[in-house]
């Protein structure tokens, strides 16, 4: 009897741990997004009233590197007072991150680093690019895995509904 109880308890805990890693539209995503280039913590709660676009990316991912300037252009057009783009480098070592960050130094989006994938895991990220839009109330409004013309079209449609 005790073995059955332990078995079912193990299954219950496993299911609940994994359930927390998948965000759905309307969910409140994890607050912490890493540290910016000056070491300041970046939190969703600091952006209340703004739309926040969170993109997980990597330097080896060419679609990611094509997406970042587009996201910055969107941020520039809408205005930093209304939208904030946070680009989280996902699972790359510090040396590689510093190298690519230097190449991207002209970009004005907020860059953070998730070396071990801890932040990404909380968001359910398994592949890059993986983009999330968090609305002005702090709830998930949209997410997309991958990058292409159709994903940009979807992104623009969702953002147009936010403003």
From TrEMBL:
The record ties this protein, via CDD domains, to:
TlpA_like_family
Q: Which residues form the Thioredoxin domain?
A: 23-163
| Signal peptide, first to last residue | 1-19
Q: Which PROSITE patterns does the record match to this protein?
A: THIOREDOXIN_2
Which superkingdom is the protein from? Bacteria
Species = Pseudoalteromonas denitrificans DSM 6059
Q: What Pfam families does the entry give?
A: Redoxin (PF08534)
* Keywords, alphabetical: Signal
From the Swiss-Prot or TrEMBL record, give the protein name. Answer: Peroxiredoxin
Which GO molecular function annotation, any one, does this entry have? oxidoreductase activity
């Amino acid at each position: 009897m005790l073995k059955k109880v332990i078995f079912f308890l193990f299954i219950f805990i496993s299911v609940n741990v994994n359930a927390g890693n998948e965000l759905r539209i309307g969910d409140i995503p994890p607050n912490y997004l890493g540290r910016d280039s000056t070491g300041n913590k970046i939190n969703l709660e600091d952006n209340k009233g703004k739309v926040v676009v969170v993109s997980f990316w990597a330097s080896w991912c060419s679609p990611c590197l094509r997406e970042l300037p587009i996201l910055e252009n969107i941020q520039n057009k809408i205005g930093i007072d209304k939208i904030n783009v946070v680009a989280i480098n996902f699972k790359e070592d510090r040396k590689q991150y510093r190298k690519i960050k230097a190449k991207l130094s002209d970009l004005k989006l907020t860059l953070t680093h998730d070396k071990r994938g801890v932040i990404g895991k909380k968001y359910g990220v398994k592949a890059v690019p993986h983009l999330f839009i968090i609305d002005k109330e702090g709830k998930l409004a949209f997410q997309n895995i991958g990058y292409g013309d159709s994903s940009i079209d979807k992104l623009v449609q969702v953002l147009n509904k936010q403003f």
